[in-house]
Amino acid sequence: MTAYSGYKANERPLSFTVDDQRLEVRDIICRWAEPEKDFFKVIADDDKVYTLSWNRKSDLWLIEKIL
User: Fold this and answer.
1) Which of 14, 41, 51, 66 sits 20 to 30 Å CA-CA off 4?
2) What is the C-alpha to C-alpha distance for residues 49 and 66, in angstroms, rounded to an integer?
3) CB-based contacts of 31-39 (< 8 A; 24+ apart in sequence)
4) pLDDT of 16
């Protein structure tokens, strides 16, 4: 996972890997925050929609859902 870090760490995802395939984030549809995680619903360059999360405490990115 690569992410853009501007005024804060891991501000938005740029790319991620699924089954050894690197995917670029083409667009962020929406984003929201919970007490320990930031979520991003994105469209990747494979035209699928993914929900990604970043756990601020553990500094760990996860793919939560693939549509």
Assistant:
1) 66
2) 6
3) 38/10, 39/64
4) 96
